[in-house]
Write a structure and sequence with these properties.
Helix content of chain B: 40-55%
Strand order of the largest sheet of chain B: 14-26-25-24-15-22-23
Number of helices of chain A: 1
Low-confidence stretches of chain A: none
Distance between the termini of chain B: 52 Å
Number of strands of chain B: 26
Distance between the termini of chain A: 55 Å
Number of strands of chain A: 10
Oligomer: heterodimer
Structural class of chain A: alpha/beta
Strand order of the largest sheet of chain A: 1-4-10-9-6-7
Largest sheet of chain A: 6 strands, mixed
Radius of gyration of chain B: 36 Å
Largest sheet of chain B: 7 strands, mixed
Low-confidence stretches of chain B: none
Strand content of chain B: 15-25%
Strand content of chain A: 35-45%
Shape of chain A: elongated
């Protein structure tokens, strides 16, 4: 009996993990000229929509002391910036083509996205 | 009044009235001519007289109305950051020591049969719980602190795995300690595993400590470059010398530099002369002599003389700033090889959590009598051994060290992709003029005929050429100057286009020109035809000198091959790379130059706009082509090649068309760049192999896949040792690139 319970709980746990981490709905937040992104256990907002051809300022403010988050990398725009704790660090991007461009922490563990349309 | 402008951040503003308040306070301060405050950017700009008002006074003026002026923000924050980092490292070290000492004591008490020397009180579960609490919730707090906000974002990272793994071990052990009878009643011996949770935390923090130290080394090159910058400049204003911070120097400022000092910004010497150590730019340690009219580059070192110069590039425009920007951009870019690692790491942690749950279920359902313990310990081992960090660090750390290493030696790599492609190059196409050759014709042979000396031939030739602007004339004038030949006045000077020049020098009629000119003037040269052809076959242009209608000398002029060309070409060929020369010159000249440089394949008679097509033809043959040029008139060819290598001009480093810029102008750096790319790629591959292999092999082992066959299980403590070393090994392997000699 206990084996059945453990099996059911285990499989439910696996399904929950899948749903919780891999099926989340990301809503894009539109950036006008600039947008503040709070870095705390990830990026808030996580998905940012930006119009094509327009220079947009992404202001990262790191509130999380985790080592992993101390750098932000926007690889497609050749940007790697150190984020000192509680300081605003501005990254300027001018996307020339539409598409999705990821930004990540230095170790590629936390992810965000710039959606250009 | 000598006016200066300064922009700085203001803290504490929240409305338009704050703006007015601060503006008024600043404007009232003596020495400030104008103050503008911008609420949107939280910044103030003041126009002020540095003689009358100090930074401190500006700061006080802002503070008096209740706000904070962040003057010298950059510098302060850098210092603060460094201190912060050091403090973090110190804290980390303390946590490592405490957790390993406490964990060690628990470990001694956990194996009473094995470690008889251990005091018996250590076997007490309650004492072990007391010792484990600070490790779990003080030293291990960092894992929870990272996990909780991440979960709010529905993300997970390595800290999540460590927090989960150690919490399971600690939680189970606490239950066993507090309610031993309950555990016993369901058939499990109440053995705590505080040693596992504490030692895991200690070892993972130890790994992090070493990793943080090693990671600092990967960005050393950029720190070195930034450190090259001078801090202040000595300006000449109204006949007075004043020292000002380098960021306040403006274009057109006149700056004085004394021996031994660093040149603050780029500019042109207006007075004085000196020899300058430009090794920071070129890697060449021999100082270069500079005098009035010569350009100087910021951050190079003035060796001997004192001079004044006019700044023509400041701030982000200086050569050093461009180099720093280029290196920073390259270090921020992504190599294509990284894509697979990116993809895997975005699913990695959730997959590991799912595997850990699966491990628990399978062990519980199919395990022996102590199934619960096996299930729990193996689940912890799976959570602990998984190391996504190693995968995340594998490529960028190597790219950072590789591009930094290149920059230290005058090889600027535009992005990680270029660094990745460069190792595949099997054909290098060199542009001739200005790349393989000096790009400036020089006199190579002076052959006197009749009784004239070499210098006399030069004297007549240079005297008659004095008024000409032809590039060949310039070469002859330069040679005459070098040989200290005294020129004579020329009368009745005439230039005949496509032929040569004539005039009267020393009362003698002088003709200087090509074969056509001699034919036209019926001056015979048939006797010297063999000599002429020999020189022409060497790719030289011949000027014939006739005095009083008699052939009196031959002067051969040629664009000379750089000394380093042959060595560079041979080194490339030795490594199996095909070398091709491309030029607009005719076959004969092209072949002669190619021969001197040791190049067998020549593409001659190619107009500048056709070079791109030739590159594409080579690519169509399946070759991976690097084009080496000056980046000015061969920009389309550089862009068309798989890798465009631009020879730097010393003043403009960011040549757009170039994937790699050689600011050291050294041809042998073409091979160095390819070798650096090969070395970096080898490091990346090894890193990825290690990072992937490690997870692919050890996660199944931790799950207990070997148990049915060999009875092998992975103790969670060993899992934490492996985990801690995996990231360090990847970063250390990247750091080994620093030892590579270019």
């Amino acid at each position: 009996m206990d084996k059945i319970i453990i099996s059911v709980l285990g499989l439910a746990g696996i399904a929950f993990t899948y749903w919780f981490f891999l099926m989340k709905n990301e809503k894009a937040v539109g950036a006008k000229d600039s947008i503040d992104i709070v870095v705390d256990g990830g990026y808030s907002p996580e998905v940012i929509s930006v119009p094509k051809g327009k220079t947009t300022k992404l202001n990262f403010i790191r509130k999380d002391p985790t080592d992993c988050l101390e750098e932000v990398v926007v690889g497609d725009f050749k940007i790697r910036k150190h984020l000192p704790l509680n300081q605003k660090v501005t990254v300027e991007i001018t996307p020339e083509k539409a598409g999705e461009f990821r930004f990540t922490c230095g170790m590629n563990m936390y992810h965000g996205k710039v959606v250009v349309n | 009044m000598a006016e200066s402008k300064k922009t700085f951040s203001i803290q504490g503003m929240h409305c338009a009235s704050c703006v007015r308040l601060i503006e008024r306070a600043l404007s009232k301060t003596e020495g400030i001519a104008q103050a503008n405050v911008n609420l949107a950017t939280d910044q103030a700009t003041v126009t002020y007289d540095p003689d009358k008002v100090s930074d401190q006074q500006i700061q006080t003026a802002v503070e008096n109305v209740g706000y904070k002026a962040m003057l010298n923000e950059e510098k302060k924050s850098e210092d603060e950051e460094k201190k912060e980092k050091q403090k973090e490292l110190r804290d980390l070290r303390n946590k490592v020591i405490v957790s390993l000492v406490l964990g060690g004591l628990i470990l001694l008490g956990s194996f009473p049969g094995l470690m008889n020397f251990a005091p018996s009180f250590l076997t007490n579960s309650w004492l072990q719980l007391l010792l484990a609490i600070p490790v779990q919730f003080w030293a291990g707090l960092t894992f929870y602190k990272a996990t909780i906000p991440a979960l709010r974002h529905r993300t997970a990272n390595m800290d999540t795995l460590v927090a989960l793994g150690t919490t399971v071990a600690f939680g189970y052990s606490s239950v066993v300690t507090i309610f031993p009878h309950v555990v016993q009643s369901i058939g499990i011996t109440p053995t705590p595993y505080f040693d596992t949770s504490s030692i895991i935390i200690g070892l993972i923090l130890l790994g992090r400590y070493f990793e943080a130290k090693a990671k600092a080394g990967t960005s050393e090159a950029i720190k070195k470059l930034i450190g090259l910058q001078a801090k202040t400049a000595r300006l000449l204003r109204d006949g007075k010398e004043i020292d000002i911070p380098i960021d306040q120097v403006q274009i057109g400022d006149i700056i004085r530099v004394r021996p031994g000092e660093k040149i603050p910004v780029d500019g042109i010497i207006v007075e004085g002369e000196s020899s300058i150590d430009e090794s920071m730019l070129t890697g060449e340690s021999i100082p270069v002599d500079k005098t009035k009219g010569d350009s100087v580059v910021g951050a190079t070192i003035n060796k001997t003389g004192t001079f004044t110069y006019k700044a023509n590039k400041v701030g982000q425009g200086t050569v050093l700033s461009q180099i720093i920007k280029l290196v920073q951009e390259a270090q921020g870019s992504k190599a294509p090889i990284q894509r697979i690692a990116d993809l895997i790491s975005s699913y990695f942690v959730p997959v590991v959590i799912m595997l850990a749950l699966l491990t628990f279920v399978v062990w519980y359902d199919f395990g022996t009598t102590t199934a619960f313990l096996f299930a729990m310990l193996n689940t912890v081992a799976v959570l602990i051994i998984a190391c996504p960090c190693a995968m995340g660090l594998a490529t960028p750390t190597a790219i950072m060290v590789g591009t930094g290493k290149g920059a230290e030696h005058g090889i600027l790599i535009k992005d990680a992709e270029s660094l990745e492609i460069a190792h595949k190059i099997n054909t290098v196409v060199f542009d001739k003029t200005g790349t393989l050759t000096r790009g400036k014709p020089e006199v190579t042979d002076v052959i006197p005929i009749s009784r004239l000396s070499k210098n006399e031939v030069l004297k007549f030739a240079a005297s008659v050429e004095k008024g000409s602007e032809h590039s060949l004339a310039e070469a002859i004038m330069r040679e005459a100057e070098e040989q200290k030949v005294k020129l004579q006045p020329v009368t009745k000077f005439k230039a005949i286009a496509g032929h040569g020049v004539e005039g009267i020098v020393d009362k003698r009629q002088v003709f200087l020109g090509n074969r056509r000119f001699m034919d036209r003037e019926s001056i015979s040269f048939g006797f010297y035809l063999e000599q002429l052809e020999r020189l022409e076959n060497e790719g030289k242009t011949i000027m014939m000198l006739a005095i009083d209608r008699k052939l009196s000398g031959l002067i051969a002029v040629a664009d000379t091959v750089k000394e380093t060309a042959r060595g560079a070409v041979e080194a490339l060929q030795k490594r199996g790379i095909q070398v091709v020369m491309i030029t607009g010159d005719n076959q004969r000249t092209a072949k002669a130059i190619a021969q001197q440089a040791g190049i067998k394949s020549v593409l001659a008679d190619i107009l500048p706009d056709q070079k791109e097509k030739e590159i594409k033809k080579l690519q169509a043959e399946g070759k991976v082509v690097a084009m080496v040029g000056d980046g000015i008139n061969d920009a389309p060819a550089l862009a068309a090649a798989d890798i465009g290598i631009a020879m730097g001009t010393g003043t403009d480093v960011a040549i757009e068309a170039g994937d790699i810029t050689l600011i050291n102008k050294d041809l042998s750096s073409v091979l160095s760049a390819i070798e650096l790319s090969k070395k970096t790629m080898r490091t990346i591959r090894l890193n990825l192999f290690w990072a992937f292999g490690y997870n692919v092999i050890l996660i199944p082992v931790a799950m207990g896949i070997l148990y049915p066959f060999f009875h092998i299980l992975l103790n969670p403590i060993f899992a934490s040792v492996a985990m801690a070393t995996s990231s360090i090994s990847v970063v250390s392997n990247s750091l080994l690139l620093r030892k590579y000699k270019i």
